[in-house]
Amino acid sequence: MDGTARDGGRMKRSRPATRERLLDAASEVFGERGFAAATVEEVCERAGFTRGAFYSNFATKEELLLALLDREEAQVLERLSAAVDTATRDSSLVSVVTGRLFDLQPFGSGNYGLRAELSLLAVRNPELAAPYLAARRAFRARFQPFLERALASAGLRLTVSADDALVTIEALFDVSARDALIAGADPNAGDNLARRMLPALLAGMTTRHGD
Known about the structure:
two-stranded antiparallel ribbon; mainly alpha; 10 helices; Arc Repressor Mutant, subunit A
């Protein structure tokens, strides 16, 4: 095992790195075993740390999962910001925004299983429901400016609340990923449900600036 967990001074200096390694290990272990079956011990073994290192960073396995999803969503926001900053206008306005959203997979088919397990845990466990809802609201609040900028760069604006738009888009990506994964298909395929329906969904929720 890595000495980080046993050397207080060293752990203090390298705590961000320790946390990142635990998150990396959790991503692998949860993906292989599923969240419910995976144990803290397995995550620690994969990361090369003792349980002490784990509990100095996370109170529970559920907190680790929330942090993992938050990290992945932060990475999505960074990619989206870069895409919007370099975007140019196109003659097919809705298709431009659709392409940006689909290519980035903002709500992530890759972490669909973890997200599904976490949502079920929140339904069954009232103590997890509040932090789960808070995490979802926080992500939508961070994602909203990028969605609005992407639309504005294509000359569009929302005709519904941004929160309702994001919840609806998230639902489309989740259902699309779920159905593809159950069918044994590629959830990122160009002809999947999200790709087919996102243009119509955006068209129904937007209008041209000035209209």
